[in-house]
Write a structure and sequence with these properties.
Elements (H helix, E strand, L loop, with lengths): L4 H4 L18 H10 L4 E5 L3 H13 L4 E6 L4 E2 L4 H5 L11 E2 L2 H7 L2 E4 L2 E5 L4 E4 L4 E3 L2 E4 L3 E3 L1 H4 L5 H10 L10 H10 L6 E4 L11 H16 L5 E4 L9 H11 L4 E4 L2 E7 L4 E6 L9 E6 L2 E4 L3 E3 L1 H6 L24 E3 L12 H19 L12 E13 L2 E12 L5 E6 L13 H19 L1
Parallel strand pairs: 1-2, 1-9, 2-5, 9-19, 11-12, 11-17, 12-13
Antiparallel strand pairs: 3-4, 6-7, 7-8, 10-18, 14-15, 15-16, 20-21, 21-22
Helix pairs in contact: 3-12, 3-13
This protein binds flavin-adenine dinucleotide.
Length: 456
């Protein structure tokens, strides 16, 4: 294998150095902490891949920084590798994905506040929460991830209809929600029939290979359970999606009678009671008319268009057309405010949004923040180009377990932007194919590594 998680995450497993000073979400305590700010206080919104990596990295670099993570969920649930749960891969259970927020906060000595952020006042340098009052900061880090944009995709649907479809056809792209559990249960309870997967219809979205990995993993489940049915993908991308060649090769080799990919479709309606989905199917990119079809489904995962989490708008920083935060050059500092950093899926750059990128960005931003708080300057271009800074694995088969991968090298371009260049390698143990057992092993190791990065 060219790369495994041990190469990428040397930091994981390093013994904790910081003194343990756990903190529970008590409003009065937090208000007192708010008054204290005015020195080295960092507040992080979002306890996901970016936020948890940042909190630990800051405390490891400078234990005198007062670090607080504010997270609305009381339990962590990882998205990466969750398609393996749907696929029924050996030994993969719900607890594989769950993390306890209080353990790393106690071990590394940062505060964990279980509350939802409702407003940000950049002038007063405070963050308002639903249950923990206002919290003051010197530096604010935003890592709130994404939200769904059903409204943009289906402008005729009212709030009730959106909620019905959200529950009936889980997108399962947002961590900490019940969607992964719901989709898993639906598969476990399904009769013979079809599973329909709808990748986001357009725009940038979280983990671009995820819908196609889900396709393979659900096909694996259907095959192993002897379910009479297909996995039908209703896509808009005409076959041009992340790791497309590698996915298509494995789909054709392993699940030729199960996966049916339709590349030129437009979903127009879902009836969650009748369990039908209506879409227009076009012959190709030039076909403007298309044919309307209605298909019955047993299980449907409709992944809506993504938009940025509303937390970025609360901060009032400059954003792009989809609401993602703009950063200052190569740094992860907001373009608008030198005391605000944006990391993870919520920031714009020309590299794919992923957990691995969120971790990479969090480490870079942590270096800049520690320097800033100590009156120094950290070169945001240092270490670029970074080779294979993003490694994204996708499971494509269960028996035997096989996976494919894409790597990205990150560099600084002349116009002052961070960009990524992708490569989908054929592994040495793949016998000329994109997939291999070694890559599947690396997938499991990578996932265990990122969980250690955040929780161990
Ligand atoms: C099915 C699937 C497979 C994936 N596979 C991979 C993979 O193989 N490799 C990879 O690198 N990445 C993968 N990803 C992508 C990865 O999960 C995301 O890119 C990563 O989680 C982004 O980190 P983040 O910190 O930006 O957001 P998140 O991890 O989503 O964290 C954001 C946090 O902010 C919290 N939050 C939001 N709003 C508020 C508020 N108002 N108040 C308080 N808290 C708030 C949320 O509850 C959440 O916990 C996958 C994703 C999916 C869905």
């Amino acid at each position: 294998m060219a790369m495994n998680r041990r190469d990428t995450f040397k930091l994981a497993g390093v013994a904790a150095a910081a003194a343990a000073m756990p903190s529970m979400a008590v409003a009065s305590e937090k208000k007192a902490a708010a008054k204290k700010a005015g020195g080295k206080s960092v507040v992080i919104i979002g306890g996901g891949f970016g936020g948890l990596t940042m909190a630990k990295a800051l405390k490891k670099k400078d234990k005198n920084i007062d670090v607080t993570v504010i997270e609305k969920n009381n339990i962590f649930m990882a998205c990466p590798f969750s398609n393996a749960l749907l696929g029924g891969l050996d030994g993969v259970t719900l607890s594989t994905f769950v993390g306890d927020y209080y353990q790393p906060s106690a071990k590394y000595g940062y505060n964990f506040v279980n509350s939802e952020v409702t407003a940000i006042d950049r002038k007063a340098k405070t963050v308002s929460t639903t249950t923990a009052g206002d919290i003051a900061y010197d530096i604010l880090v935003l890592s709130p991830g994404i939200a769904y944009d059903y409204e943009k995709q289906f402008p005729k649907w009212d709030a009730d209809k959106i909620e019905q479809v959200r529950q009936a056809c889980p997108g399962a792209l947002i961590s900490g929600s019940n969607e992964h559990v719901a989709l898993h249960r639906q598969l476990e309870n399904m009769d013979d029939g079809n599973v329909i997967i709808v990748p986001p219809a357009k725009g940038k979205f979280r983990c671009p290979p995820a819908p196609y990995e889900r396709t393979a993993m659900i096909a694996n489940y259907i095959k192993n359970e002897g379910i009479k049915g297909k996995v039908i993908v209703l896509d808009t991308r005409g076959g041009k999606f992340a790791k497309a060649k590698a996915f298509k090769e494995s789909w054709a080799d392993i699940f030729p009678d199960i996966i049916e990919y339709k590349g030129f479709t437009n979903v127009t309606d879902v009836d969650p009671v009748a369990k039908t989905i209506t879409y227009t199917e076009f012959k190709d990119a030039d076909d403007e008319k298309g044919v309307s079809k209605t298909e019955k489904y047993e299980v449907c995962s409709l992944i809506p268009i993504n938009k940025c989490s509303p937390v970025i708008a609360m901060a009032g920083v400059e954003v792009n057309a989809s609401g993602y935060g703009l950063m200052d050059g190569y740094s992860f500092r907001s373009k608008t405010d030198s005391n605000v950093y944006i990391i993870g899926d919520a920031v714009t750059h020309a590299i794919p949004p992923s957990g691995q990128t969120a971790i990479w960005g969090a480490h870079r931003a942590a270096g800049q923040i520690v320097a800033q708080l100590n009156g120094k300057v950290d070169d945001p271009k240092a270490g670029l180009p970074a080779k294979a800074a993003n490694v994204c694995f996708s499971m494509v088969g269960g028996k035997p377990e096989e996976a494919i991968m894409v790597t990205h090298t990150f560099s600084a371009d002349k116009s002052g932007k961070l960009k990524g260049k992708g490569n989908v390698p054929k592994p040495k143990d793949g016998n000329g194919k994109f997939r291999s057992k070694g890559t599947a092993k690396a997938t499991r190791e990578w996932f265990a590594g990122v969980m250690r990065e955040m929780f161990a």
